[in-house]
């Protein structure tokens, strides 16, 4: 590092050091580079699917927990896939606890497309840390731990119990981690009142909170029709039947996309439909038989349904317009995630006064000199859905402002100053949430949410 940029770095850190010292004089003594190096250590564990290194991950997290004297429990709902539950007990265990949730696995990389090794956690001269998982979402898991360290050093004592949970398999659906955890007796006993899970980076100065997510419906439509000579024009062939549907689906897709393009709706607020495959034709040794109209054809679509949509209306549309029996068509879902929670309500976390956690979050972020943008619907699926399904409030929040959205992309990075700032923000949230005692509202809001 050249002397000039060193000065720049010191300058950028100055506000942080002042804020940290507001928490405690002891903490101001901690060198931010040590905090960053613990993050790098976590990033260097290769947890890419399909073979995340769970043993190193577990060892690392448990060592962090022990350095903070947190209670730790490792649960394997499925052998070899650890869910790690850390607990900072509150002084009033009868109040619902708060859960800070992250996943340890990351998506695979195309090594050759990276400027720095994806599991090297290279810190460049500008302060950017390059690694798979730097945004999605090892940053958040480690910030949860560092925020607890910050609060412990300041002498803070939580009234509510604070759980920090790490799960193994969000990137492949969360079925062996979050889904099983949410259904477990262990989770019921944790008596969780609110969940914080992942969000997305924000290219501007506002953090992006997420209060819902779209549900994936993976649809396959099939057409059958009279087979015949490739030279003959006749009605009711399988492909003609299928193409009528594809045209209808494309018109629907365009109408939804137009709402986004016109700025009337955000990406997470419309139903997206994208074709995933087309399957038809009669194979021959050289490709396909060219003078034959096949008797079967099918197409697959990835549909994402916002919690605000009426699932019955969409399903009727599919049955009547996209795969009508009158055109000899059938359909099936490869996946059809529910849009409603167990109480039959849309899977949305309230962002008004009916949900005290929302207001407390706004307050906590403000206190840490951060700004929250308008709440959004997450465009893809996260593990939050398993908790929202139970009717629990869950907020998606990854504090990364002024950061390009690089999750699942090559050269994923996070600036160390944004990372450090995020620790303060989580410190403020944990402090605010863990001190909140108006429990009578918890119960009633929980039923409503
Ligand atoms: C995890 O990484 C360590 C090196 O840090 C290695 O010894 C071990 O074999 C790895 N385990 C798996 C399952 O890849
Ligand atoms: C549906 O299939 C039947 C039996 O193969 C056929 O007679 C009829 O013409 C088909 N109708 C359409 C609309 O494809």
Largest sheet: 6 strands, mixed
Specify the number of helices: 13
Q: How many beta-strand runs?
A: 19
Distance between the termini: 51 Å
The unreliable regions are: 1-18
How many individual domains?
Answer: 2
Please name the CATH topology of the largest domain: Aminopeptidase
Compute the average pLDDT: 92
The bound ligands are: 2-acetamido-2-deoxy-beta-D-glucopyranose
Strand content: 15-25%
Gyration radius over CA = 25 Å
The name of the CATH superfamily of the largest domain reads Zn peptidases
Q: By helix and strand content, what is the structural category?
A: alpha+beta
What is the multimeric organization of the chains shown? single chain
What is the molecular shape? elongated
CATH architecture of the largest domain: 3-Layer(aba) Sandwich
CATH class of the largest domain: Alpha Beta
Helix amount? 25-40%
Protein name: N-acyl-aliphatic-L-amino acid amidohydrolase
Family: Belongs to the peptidase M20A family.
Pfam families: M20_dimer (PF07687), Peptidase_M20 (PF01546)
Organism: Punica granatum
């Amino acid at each position: 590092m050249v002397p000039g940029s060193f000065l720049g770095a010191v300058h950028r850190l100055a506000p942080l050091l002042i804020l940290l010292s507001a928490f405690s004089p002891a903490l101001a003594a901690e060198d931010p580079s040590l905090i960053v190096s613990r993050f790098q250590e976590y990033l260097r564990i290769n947890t890419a699917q399909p073979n995340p290194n769970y043993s190193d991950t577990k060892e690392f997290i448990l060592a962090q927990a022990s350095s903070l004297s947190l209670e730790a429990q490792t649960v394997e709902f499925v052998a070899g896939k650890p869910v790690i539950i850390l607990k900072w007990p509150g002084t009033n265990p009868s109040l619902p606890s708060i859960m800070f949730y992250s996943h340890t696995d990351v998506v695979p990389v195309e090594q050759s497309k990276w400027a720095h090794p994806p599991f090297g956690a290279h810190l460049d001269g500008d302060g950017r840390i390059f690694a798979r998982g730097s945004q999605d979402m090892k940053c958040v898991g480690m910030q949860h731990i560092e925020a607890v360290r910050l609060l412990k050093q300041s002498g803070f004592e939580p009234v509510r119990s604070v759980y920090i949970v790490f799960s193994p398999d969000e990137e492949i659906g969360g079925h062996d981690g979050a889904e099983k955890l949410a259904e477990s007796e262990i989770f019921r006993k944790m008596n969780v009142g609110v969940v914080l899970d992942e969000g997305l980076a924000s290219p501007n100065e506002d953090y992006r909170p997420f209060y819902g997510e779209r549900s994936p419906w993976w649809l396959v439509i099939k057409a059958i029709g009279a087979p015949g000579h490739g030279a003959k024009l006749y009605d009711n062939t399988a492909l003609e039947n299928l193409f009528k549907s594809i045209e209808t689906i494309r018109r629907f897709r365009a109408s939804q996309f137009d709402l986004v393009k016109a700025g009337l709706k955000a990406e997470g607020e419309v139903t997206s439909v994208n074709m995933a495959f087309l399957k038809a034709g009669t194979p021959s040794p050289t490709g396909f038989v060219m003078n034959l109209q096949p008797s079967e054809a099918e197409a697959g679509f990835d549909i994402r349904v916002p919690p605000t949509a009426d699932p019955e209306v969409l399903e009727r549309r599919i049955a009547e317009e996209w795969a009508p029996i009158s055109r000899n068509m059938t359909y099936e879902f490869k996946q059809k995630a529910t849009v409603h929670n167990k109480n039959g309500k849309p899977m949305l976390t309230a962002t008004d006064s009916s949900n005290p956690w929302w207001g407390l979050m706004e307050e906590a972020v403000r206190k840490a000199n951060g700004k929250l943008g308008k709440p959004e619907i997450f465009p893809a699926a996260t593990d939050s859905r398993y908790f929202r399904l139970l009717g629990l409030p869950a907020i998606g929040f990854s504090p990364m402002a002024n950061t390009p959205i690089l999750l699942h992309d090559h050269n994923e990075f996070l600036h160390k100053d944004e990372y450090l700032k995020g620790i303060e923000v989580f410190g403020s949230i944990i402090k605010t949430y863990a001190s909140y005692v108006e429990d009578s509202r918890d119960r009633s809001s929980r039923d409503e949410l």
